[in-house]
Give the backbone structure.
Amino acid sequence: MKNFIFQNPTKLVFGKGQIEKISELIPQDVNLLITYGGGSVTKNGVYDQVKNALKGRSYTEFWGIEANPRVETLRKAIVLGKQKNINFILAVGGGSVLDGTKLIAAGIASDIDAWDIVLSGVAEKQIPFASIMTVPATGSEMNGAAVITREETQEKYGFGGDYPRFSILDPEVTYSLSEHQVACGLADAYTHVLEQYMTTPGQSRIMDRWAEGVLLTVIEIAPKIKENPKDYDLMADYMLSATLALNDFIRMGITQDWATHQIGHELTALNGITHGHSLAIVMPGLLRVLKQQKFDKLLQYGERIFNITEGSDDEKVNKAIEKTEEFYRSLGLTTRLSEEGVGEETIETIARRFNERGVAFGENQNVTGEVAREILNKCL
Amino acid sequence: MKNFIFQNPTKLVFGKGQIEKISELIPQDVNLLITYGGGSVTKNGVYDQVKNALKGRSYTEFWGIEANPRVETLRKAIVLGKQKNINFILAVGGGSVLDGTKLIAAGIASDIDAWDIVLSGVAEKQIPFASIMTVPATGSEMNGAAVITREETQEKYGFGGDYPRFSILDPEVTYSLSEHQVACGLADAYTHVLEQYMTTPGQSRIMDRWAEGVLLTVIEIAPKIKENPKDYDLMADYMLSATLALNDFIRMGITQDWATHQIGHELTALNGITHGHSLAIVMPGLLRVLKQQKFDKLLQYGERIFNITEGSDDEKVNKAIEKTEEFYRSLGLTTRLSEEGVGEETIETIARRFNERGVAFGENQNVTGEVAREILNKCL
């Protein structure tokens, strides 16, 4: 096990009827900004719950943070926040609203341009922020990361910084999600775990078990959610699993990968494929190309997650990769670029961008532009 | 899943050579008290590491916090702490030193007698404290709980309060533990999980998986540690598992039990049986008496932890309980009161005490004095 420092200060407020707690959770003496997405919260009742909880208090609203939040949009919120001396932000929405809010919080606290903050990789300072998370997927509600898109150049990069002061998760809010949103959320959570698990074996038995625990849970609940998308306990396990998939709890003392995300971000930036969906396309191809490197962990994964115990080791590993792609498809997602009308042109653009950035990704930092091309060709 | 609020602010600093980090982790401007146990830290090198890291700084030392820390001892530290205007405490030792330190931190911050704080169940205020944890077992390094003994009345009760500001865990420190200490630590961690897991089934799939993940890890590493008690990765997994067994991570949104601990504390208070050992004695008996109540969870546990799939449900459940007792014995611990020379007299005292306290324990609050007697008779 590698040395590590772990600290996750976010207060997680989970369950039915918890949204009203914002009245006590948000300090009384702050200049509050509330950030929203495109308006789904006005349909699922969350907006009314927020308004009722904050009755009698004054605050500013900022609407229109889009899926894959754009720096061009967020800069407007930063200007507004500075004008109004905002010193606390509540994000109400999915991972995109919260990710965007993390950059707004950094932009208000700094004189650096928002895109430069993203490119630097780390927000040195942020005003306090919190969330009401309505879409279980990104884990942003309990981590310090955010991913931002620059529309004019079709770029999408992540940065790190503070954790939310609190996040409220009410599983009932998920009842209004579409089947595609749930599928992408489950794929996102599943892939987050694989990015932290499908690495050098034998680093930590307990971290392996916890990663496998999230995978087994997601696999168990996914078909049941299709049948009963308003079953409270199912959606509660989905929501909690998505949080635990990316809140540092399953990566203590171990190496990580994240090459699938780097490639997936490009597919989203260039072709608009929903984030979770992009991961479902890239991960099987990546496992096929990096099979030898990940061989021993794939064996363990196949046995513990899919009960694959028959055949040669090579057959077992191939089967584990097939079962992974089957799982993504079982969610109702396509897993091939060709099914999404994406082809050679995008692949070449991504390979060129990786080469231009001059960095290689993945646990062993060997996913260069050439390897990314090879992976994407396997995803056709 | 039940509604819950989760927040664990402790900074976990884990790995080789991390003890020297106290020089930066402890604020510069505090009046520091360092608390120790009986002196094992002078033999395993920890004391020297602390002294070197704090060279040039002034601080007060308090020695002699015993196993099952006594309020009579801790009151002396509270007097000293008030005299010296102590406003930060570093506990260096095992769970007892840290549990004792949690009460010292409460006593210094209050005018209430230390035992009354324990009896109240909650420390309303504590000065900040942190730890260098040398014995993986109690999880005290990352939770808000402490258990204190009153020697003059042979009573042992717990209370809750703040979490450590930070805890440093260096697995190399465990190399000097005795085989019995390791056995008791593993039994303690295993039982902590069972207290949060062996309850009403179907409350949370992901919490079940994580609890099972700790159990499977402890079962896997226990025999290996016997063979290689100085294997770094083994001891790292042991140390991390003990922390994760009782830091709130596996009890989100679920009910808990803790009747085994209530009975075990009495055995420790009355007969001096080491805490982890007392749990190894009580848990199998408790499962036998409460078999029907815990039937469905025992079935799941038997299948997922011990691969018990043959026979009738009743046979499977009996087998799961047998395997649990076998596991404790495999650590090198006895699992019967008669083996420890404890008999009827102690059982009657415990039953009478439970009745006098007028409370019943366990998930369903049905472990009365009578049920405790029945459980202990099964442990003979």
